[in-house]
Specification:
It contains ten helices and five strands. A five-stranded mixed beta sheet has the order 1-2-3-4-5, sandwiched between helices.
Length: about 290
Amino acid sequence: MSQNTYQLLQNKKKNILELWMKNQLTDEGLREDLISNDELRNQSEELIDALVGNLSGSNLTNLESDEWNPVIEILGGIAITRARQGFSPRETGNFVFLLKEAILEVLQNEIDDPRALFAESQKINRLMDSLSVVTFETFIKGREEVILRQTDEITEISTPVIRVWDGILALPIIGTLDSARTQIVMENLLQEIVESGSSIAILDISGVPAVDSLVAQHLIKTVSATRLMGAECIISGIRPEIAQTVVHLGIDLSNIITKATLASALAYSFKAMRLEVKRLNTVSKI
């Protein structure tokens, strides 16, 4: 970029900022529910100060150079924050696209020579497009972090170990079992067995949509780990379609206690622990 253009953008920095803010505030994708106008202005002002300060460099496209670190850090921080706040990729991308439009508009108003305008506009286009790529890459990383965190939280919530009676635990499983989730199920169940001293654990799979050979292997591993801790494991929630699938796949569950419902498993547990539950006959008074 020529020294004249760099000096022009330095002198017109406030104009660029105001034009950029106008573009953002009138954009249909403005998310006032996620960010205030004051916060938006602070982000914009911080980025444009760092950006214009770097335009004097000879290499405008090599964003790997150290001189672009301040710009990349600011832009990356904004992208990560917006990913966590719930902005869409389009809304985040517009933050950079609208800045490019503002800079190009200022150049068009201030440079009279068509050739010089074309050359400088090309440089700005390449630079801002490179910054857009950086923004999207950082945004995607931020969104992946959010998804992974939410997945972990959902997994924790969906695998609660419940103390249904002294010495009896129940773990209702909802959703598909995979290797990672099976590990969490086993860890939670074994930890609760140690803390409660329970001798019976019920795995209820009535919320599992389907059982294939992989899911069955995960269940068998969980049962084996439970037995190593000195507790008996019962699998409940065996629906007819699941039973047919297990038989069709040739999966051997003969050495595992299975029950059709959680109530049946609980009744079996009471009997195994020599507990008796009786219904009290109540007489209503008139």
